[in-house]
Write a structure and sequence with these properties.
InterPro entries: rRNA_MeTrfase, rRNA_MeTrfase_GmN_bac, SAM-dependent_MTases_sf
CATH superfamily of the largest domain: Vaccinia Virus protein VP39
Order of helices and strands: HHHHHHHEEHEEHHEHEE
Oligomer: single chain
Pfam families: FmrO
Largest sheet: 7 strands, mixed
Catalytic activity: guanosine(1405) in 16S rRNA + S-adenosyl-L-methionine = N(7)-methylguanosine(1405) in 16S rRNA + S-adenosyl-L-homocysteine
EC number: 2.1.1.179
CATH topology of the largest domain: Rossmann fold
Helix content: 40-55%
Shape: globular
CATH architecture of the largest domain: 3-Layer(aba) Sandwich
Number of domains: 2
Bound molecules: S-adenosylmethionine
Binding site for S-adenosyl-L-methionine: 95-101, 125, 148, 174-175, 190, 199
C-alpha cells in the first residue's frame, strides 16, 4: 500500500513536471494516475499511459500554451458587441471543437434554447465554448457556470464571463465522477460524452442522467480531428437512441456539418443549487 502511494506520488510529480499537464486539476491527474497504475505494473509504463490518457482528454484539441492574459486584455478593450464577437470568433479558432462550430454559431444557440432564453446555463467540458456567449442572446442577469479540467482555462473563463455580458463562475470538475452540484435551466454538454466514455464506460450516460437541468443539449463530433468521415454519426446516433429509449427521452436532432446535436427536454423541474 505504502509502495503504491509512493508510486502514485512519483507518477503525479512526473506528469506535473510536463508543462502540457501542469494546469490540469490535481484530482484528475490523481484519478488517471491510479487507473494507470492498476493497469501497468511498471511505473514508467504507468506514467506514459497517464500522459496518453490526459493527452486524449485535452491535448489533442487545443493549441499549446494559450495566451490567456493577452486574450483577456483583448476582450477588455473590445468597445462593443460587434468587436467582442470578432475577438471571440478569432479566439475560438484555437480549439478544434469551437473552430469547427464557427460557421454555425448564428443558428445553433437559438435552436438549442427554444423560444425562451435560459436564466441559468451549465457548460460541462466547456473548452472555449463560453466564448460563444455573444451569439447566445442571453440577458445580462443570466448565470453561466462552466466546468472543465484545466485550471488555467477555468481561470480565463471566470474572468471572461463578465466581459461577455453574463454573470457566473468557472471551475474545474472531473465529469467522469459526476456533474457539479449545480442546477440550471439548460446544460450544454458539447462533444464531451465520447471522451468520458473513453475514460470510463458508462461515464457519459451516467453524467447525462445526473445533471440537474430540465433541458440537455448534447453533441457529438461526426468527423475525426483530421476531418475524415469514419462512421461517427452512425455510432453516436445509436448511442443516443439507446440512451433516449432507456430514459424515455425524445430528442430533437440538429445536424451541423461536423456535429450532431441532441436537444432533450426532460420535463423535470431543476432543483435549487445544493
Ligand atoms: C472535445 S472538447 C469540447 C469542448 C467544448 N465543449 C466544445 O464543444 O467546444 C472536450 C472537453 O472536455 C474536457 N474534458 C475531458 N475529460 C473531462 C473530464 N473528465 N471532466 C471534465 N472535463 C473533461 C476537455 O478538457 C475538453 O475541453
Amino acid at each position: 500500500m505504502a509502495e503504491r502511494d509512493s508510486q502514485l506520488a512519483e507518477l503525479i510529480a512526473a506528469v506535473q513536471a510536463s508543462a502540457r499537464y501542469r494546469t490540469i486539476d490535481a484530482a484528475v491527474i490523481e484519478r488517471v494516475g491510479r487507473e494507470s497504475l492498476q493497469r501497468y505494473p511498471s511505473l514508467k509504463a504507468a506514467i506514459k499511459a497517464a500522459k496518453t490518457t490526459l493527452h486524449q482528454m485535452i491535448g489533442a484539441y487545443a493549441d499549446r500554451a494559450l495566451p490567456y492574459p493577452q486574450w483577456l486584455a483583448e476582450l477588455q478593450s473590445a468597445p462593443d458587441k460587434t468587436t467582442r464577437q470578432a475577438v471571440c470568433h478569432r479566439l475560438m479558432a484555437h480549439h478544434a471543437s469551437t473552430r469547427e462550430r464557427l460557421p454555425a454559431l448564428d443558428r445553433l444557440y437559438p435552436a438549442c434554447f427554444g423560444g425562451q432564453p435560459p436564466q441559468r446555463v451549465l457548460d460541462l467540458g466547456c473548452g472555449l465554448n463560453p466564448l460563444a456567449i455573444p451569439w447566445m442572446e442571453l440577458p445580462p442577469t443570466t448565470w453561466y457556470a462552466a466546468y472543465d479540467i484545466d485550471m488555467a482555462l477555468s481561470g480565463f473563463i471566470r474572468a471572461a464571463l463578465p466581459l461577455l455580458g453574463v454573470q457566473g463562475e468557472a471551475n474545474t470538475c472531473d465529469l467522469a465522477a459526476g456533474p457539479p452540484p449545480v442546477a440550471a435551466d439548460v446544460a450544454l454538454v458539447l462533444k464531451t460524452i465520447p471522451l468520458l466514455e473513453q475514460q470510463r464506460r458508462g461515464a457519459g450516460a451516467d453524467l447525462l442522467r445526473a445533471i440537474q437541468a430540465p433541458r440537455l443539449v448534447v453533441s457529438f463530433p461526426t468527423r475525426s480531428l483530421g476531418g475524415r468521415n469514419v462512421g461517427m454519426a452512425t455510432t453516436y446516433r445509436g448511442y443516443m437512441d439507446a440512451l433516449a429509449a432507456a430514459e424515455g427521452w425524445s430528442p430533437h436532432v440538429i445536424e451541423l456539418p461536423n456535429e450532431l446535436v441532441f436537444v432533450i427536454e426532460r420535463h423535470t423541474p431543476s432543483r435549487s443549487r445544493m
